Amino acid sequence: MNKKFIAWILGGSIVTAAVILLLVPKELPSMKFIPNKNSLNKKNPITPLRPQNEEVRAVWISSIWGLDFPYNSINRNNPAAQQAEFISYLDELQEIGFNTVMVQVRPSADALYKSAINPWAAILTGTQGQDPGYDPLAFMIDQTHKRGMKLHAWINPYRVTTAGKGIDTLVATHPARLNPDMLISHKNALYYNPELDAVKSHIEETVKEIVTNYSVDGIHMDDYFYPAWYPLPAGEDGNGKTATTRRNHVNDMVKRIHTAIKQIKPNVEFGISPIGIWKDSITDITGSETSAGWNSYYAVYADTRAWIQNEWIDYVVPQIYWEIDNPVASYEVLVKWWAEEVKNTNVDLYIGQGIYKDAVAEEITTQILLNDLYPEIKGSVFFAISDIIRKNTGNVRGQLEALFGTDDPNKPLNLFIDTAKIVPSAEPYLLNGTMLVPLQDVAGALKLSIIFDSDTQLTITQGKTKAQLEIGKNIAFVNGVLQQLAAPVEKVNDTIMVPVYFLRDYLHATVTWAPNTLTISLNHDTLAKKTAPISIITQ
Question: Which of 83, 215, 423, 502 would you label with 311, given CA atoms 20 to 30 Å apart?
Answer without folding.
Answer: 215
